[in-house]
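Continuing from the previous page...

OK, I double-checked the sequence for Sugar dehydrogenase against my notes and this is the correct one:
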Amino acid sequence: MYTDLAGKTAIVTGSSKGIGKAIAERFGKEKMNVVVNYRSDPEGGEETAKNIEKSGGKAVAVKADVSSEEGISALINAAVENFGTIDVMVNNSGFNGDEVLPHEMTLEQWRKVIDVNLTGTFLGAKEAISYMLENDIKGTVLNISSVHQQIPRPGNVHYSSSKGGMKLMTETLALDYAEKSIRVNSLAPGTIATESNPDLEGEAKEAQLKKIPMKTFGKPEEVAAAAAWLVSEEASYVTGATLFVDGGMTLYPSQLESN
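Thanks. Re-ran it with the corrected sequence; updated structure tokens here:
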């Protein structure tokens, strides 16, 4: 646990399930105030909020589309109205999109992924940083990326492009605001055992495990633990970095086959 986080306020986008839910609930254990965000799952959002409060934190669940300025503004306003400030912004909302070869991809398919993953992250970071600058807050922005910011994902050029863009966005934002003591970092999970992951059973599971040197899938709680560290004072000298939580997936495990 990180005692400096107690009483601080965080917004976690896409926190009604999966990795976002785990991060929000870990923040609850850190006794933080958390704005839980959902788009189409009010029950999941309320469940996350209740779990946070059971752990000793405070929470409010807010419906918002993070790909729009209005949605991000709603989250910022909820944080200020309910908790008085914003210390941490976690841009977690993400969308995989359809698996389709680029020459068959429609502009709508491309835009849907880019709008949520890249534009949503930009808007979240922009508005949070604006608030931090206006109120002289030495805050933190954490972007939830993917191993596919480094590893190409065949049939998913929209997704890989969005995550590759997120990498350089994180680094550029970190450079732009380092002198203001606003830290910006990324977390890049590998294959995590969440309810929405299609690679957890049968032949798909075995194929996916071959890509992971540790031969196991990650847990959302393991990503959340890394998130808590990155937004804490324990990581006060870390900015512009990507922390991979991937069981070694980015270490090119195919090289093991040649040994």
